[in-house]
Amino acid sequence: MPLPTPKNGEKRSKFISRCMVDLTAKDEFKDINRRVAVCSSQFEDAESKASVVLGDEDKILFFANAAPSVMQHYFETKEEALKDAKKLGLKGIHPHTTKDGKTLYMAGPDHKTFMKRHDEILKEKSDSSLWENIKKKKDRIKSGSGEKMRKKGEKGAPTPDQIKKAKGE
Fold first, then answer.
1. In this structure, which long-range contacts are made by residues 130-137, counting pairs with CB atoms below 8 Å and at least 24 apart in sequence?
2. Structural contact between residues 90 and 117, judged by C-beta atoms closer than 8 angstroms
3. Residue 129 in 3-state DSSP?
4. Does an H or E element contain 94, and which?
5. What is the largest CA-CA distance in the chain?
6. How far, in Å, are 13, 46, 52, 73, 117 from residue 108 at the CA level?
7. Cβ count within 10 A of residue 54
8. Residue 9 to residue 53: CA distance in whole angstroms
9. pLDDT tens-digit profile of 20-75?
């Protein structure tokens, strides 16, 4: 079985907890000390490959190929971060220190607030493109793709909430 790896934007503490549970559930590495060592090693390996490493004690890893939308919100100047905060509808900025000691700035009073707003924006974009996706699928079906529209309530079909949001309700 493959070993767990840190997710983009995951804190070290969260990864170690998730990794420990995963290895316990898989009945691998029965000794707790061995599980801790394996999980720590997995995090350190991922850290060496990360594009940005934030924090000292409880590090957060970011991978350039996994989160371009988040990576574009780190700025070298406070002024740039404040402009981004205004565009995103957030107040203030917060600093991050990279593993090489460089300070970068990001919109919002803290990272958690930024990520919450970032996720909301991504969801809004996906909701607004619902009608576009439905139209594209209908066009593919007309062209003979062999696909079928999903029925209401089927897995993968838009939920009532997604439809309401797409309608602007």
1. 130/158, 130/162, 130/163, 130/166, 131/166, 134/158
2. yes
3. coil
4. strand 93-97
5. 59
6. 23, 27, 18, 11, 9
7. 21
8. 9
9. 988 887 777 888 899 899 999 999 988 888 877 777 778 877 675 554 467 788 89
